[in-house]
Design a protein that fits this description.
- This protein is an alpha/beta fold.
- It has two domains: 173 residues, Rossmann fold, CATH 3.40.50; 122 residues, N-(1-d-carboxylethyl)-l-norvaline Dehydrogenase, domain 2 (Orthogonal Bundle), CATH 1.10.1040.10.
- The chain has 13 helices and eleven strands.
- The strands form three sheets. A six-stranded parallel beta sheet has the order 3-2-1-4-6-8, sandwiched between helices.
- β1, α1 and β2 form a beta-alpha-beta unit.
- The relative contact order is 0.10.
- This is 3-hydroxyisobutyrate dehydrogenase.
- One of its GO terms (molecular function) is 3-hydroxyisobutyrate dehydrogenase activity.
- Keywords: Branched-chain amino acid catabolism, Mitochondrion, NAD, Oxidoreductase, Transit peptide.
Length: 319
């Protein structure tokens, strides 16, 4: 039977960092009653001052919410919020929230294990056609800018009826939702998307740096790419060469984008997943090595397109 999640009265949000705070703010704008938690007490005070209910633990958020959304840095953080002391599942087999949505970028194996744990729980208050709690993995694409604008894309894994029930909630924070299949498949989609993005950026950066070394300008080469077979997002929407395109991280010294340390983390997840299923992924391994290297060289907080300068030693267009 299809699950109905209307009306949603109380939404919990855990993880109010660069992404999470903007997602939570859009839920507030949409009129949801919010209860939030973050390890940063300054962030908690900010939301408390705004009149938003704050709780000292994830379990406290769960006890006040019909739906709980988590947006956290890594698998270990997600596991701690779910299974740790005062975690979402601290209450044993009984859960207040009907739906738990994790928008963190984590490995598919963790998503699937947590989904199974949640499905084995019982609702404290059973609804007519919602028998047991459900988890969706719903990582996002679009970064901080899209989170601010409410234009994220959600890649969702889990049961399809739970996805349909959660869709309006997700669209309060984004403009696209894509159902990816069963539990963990949202996480699979995210790490595969970021793998392709990383390899694409490396290929474009390598080609542009080589072109510069051989005497052609990056602007000219970019025009050629964008009107021929090399055209891709890394060349036409997120060009890595300072001076070629405005409004992208390369135009502001690689600040304000998707940090290289986050790309290195996501590639590590892709490498681990490839090893688990014994899939040949040589470009994944090389990409992880390159991004790990530039992070070790002190560029971990710069946008991942900075690989053009810090790995390939490419030049700015105006140099």
């Amino acid at each position: 039977m299809s699950r109905i999640l209307e009306p949603i009265k109380n939404v919990g949000f855990i993880g109010l960092g660069n992404m999470g705070s903007r997602m939570a703010n859009n839920l507030l704008k949409a009129g949801y009653k919010m209860t939030v938690h973050d390890v940063d007490t300054n962030v908690m005070k900010k939301y408390s001052d705004m009149g938003v209910s704050t709780k000292q633990t994830p379990f406290g958020v769960a006890e006040a919410s019909d739906v709980v959304i988590t947006m956290l840095p890594s698998s270990s953080h997600v596991l701690n919020v779910y299974n740790g002391p005062y975690g979402l599942l601290q209450g044993g087999n009984l859960l207040r929230p009907r739906l738990l949505i994790d928008s963190s970028t984590i490995d598919p194996q963790t998503s699937r294990k947590l989904s199974a744990s949640v499905s084995n729980c019982t609702l404290k208050e059973k609804k007519e056609n919602w028998e047991s709690p459900v988890m969706l993995d719903a990582p996002v694409s679009g970064g901080v800018v899209a989170a601010e604008a409410g234009s994220l894309t959600f890649m969702v894994g889990g049961s399809e009826d739970a996805y349909l029930a959660a869709k309006s909630l997700l669209l309060s924070m984004g403009k696209n939702t894509i159902f990816c299949g069963g539990p963990g498949n949202g996480s699979v989609a995210k790490i595969c998307n970021n793998l392709a993005m990383a390899v694409s950026m490396l290929g474009v950066s390598e080609a542009l740096a080589l072109g510069q070394s051989l005497g052609i300008t990056a602007s000219t080469l970019t025009k050629i790419f964008n009107s021929s077979s090399a055209r891709c997002w890394s060349s036409d929407s997120y060009n890595p060469v300072p001076g070629v395109m405005q409004g992208v991280p390369s135009s502001r010294n690689y600040s304000g984008g998707f940090a290289s340390k986050l790309m290195a983390k996501d590639l590590k997840l892709a490498v681990a997943s490839a090893e688990e299923v014994e899939q040949k992924c040589p470009l994944t391994f090389l990409a992880q090595h390159i991004y790990t290297e530039i992070c070790k060289d002190g560029h971990e907080t710069e946008d991942f397109s900075s690989v053009f300068r810090h790995y390939y030693s490419g030049k700015s267009e105006h140099d």
